[in-house]
Amino acid sequence: xxxxxxxxxxxxxxxxxxKALSGFARVTPMEPSRGMDSxxxxxxxxxxxxQRAGSYKVRGAYVRISRLSKAERARGVVAASAGNHAQGxxxxxxxxGAAATVFMPSGAPLPKVAATRGYGARVExxxxxxxxCLAAAREHSEATGAVFxxxxxxxxxxxxxxxxxxxIFEQCPEVxxxxxxVGGGGLISGIGVAAKALRPExxxxxxxxxxxxxxxxxxxxxxxxxxxxYATIADGIKVGRPGEVTFPHVRxxxxxxxxxxxxxxxxxxxxxxxxxxxxxxxxxxxxxxxLLSGVLAAEPPTVVVLSGGNIxxxxxxxxxxxxxxxxxxxLRFTVRCSDVPGVLASMLxxxxxxxxxxxxxxHQRYDRGHYVGEVTVxxxxxxxxxxxxxxxxxxxxxxxxxxxxxxxxxx
Length: 411
Hints:
- It is an enzyme of class 4 (lyase).
- It is a single chain.
- This protein is of the alpha/beta class.
- The protein is built from 15 helices and 14 strands.
């Protein structure tokens, strides 16, 4: 158990990690933000979504494995992850000549599973949570002698992640606030180590998904607290309990931890994709989500770490549709009307006259709630935003159509 007397990682260890990573990890770009006009600026994005293997995780994984002895590497390494740590370990192990076995949840996104295998690791699908995989990985380590590479709770991993902050200070020397996502706490711990040693006046803010936010209650309790349940689309930060090593770093070095909703995360994915041309996974956008939603008022200049870009294309499709609906640009609704010739054409004509673009139409003639001669028509319509959507729906209702909204596009 880690006590209050436990030594924190030092900035010299972060410097050593940076030297170890030279020639392996990318110095990822810093990009000015777009589409964040409501946020006091300037705001910059540290694009770890463009890192090798698609996330910052490769930094800590490489540093940890690079510090193993030849004998330890010969026994191989084992890890547990929902995706990004898995890929980071796979890439780092291949570079350093160690065989890697990775345990992933059975529901892990298929592209992350395929990528991990593609980088050379052996993948085992176990259980439904990262905690299930951690238990399996530890059992494998005990049975085979493979070295367990924890996704966040180790000083070498924290030191490796802290190299992100070193690059931030070089790329944006005037930074006043650094914002990053928090799962188990490895990234924010490393950033805190570097920031408070090099620029103690810089604020370090962590962000969690509110449906998987173990850090705030842990900080209140003064010790790591396990959530009884947690679920979020941000699978990369879906962690039910802070680490024993990371917790004191967050407690002592991080200025605040805030939370964002699933809706906030979805909107941020869309803004970064549409306005900034950056593909970022849900866990990677929580910092941007905190600024866009207003739950965090950061002192600018602000640097937001976009921690990963590994997203399942099917999830991306759903997030885009959901985000468009939430912004009033995509409507799903049903209209109950008479099942007689000309009614559907008249309704579609009204939608077209008001500038709506019908994506799809489906008739539902046989329903217990229908009167004889009635039909329900389900429509998906593209609009130009909230005002246009409200105008279109109002026109349908004024014309006598009984409109019922479906999903998140309700007005």
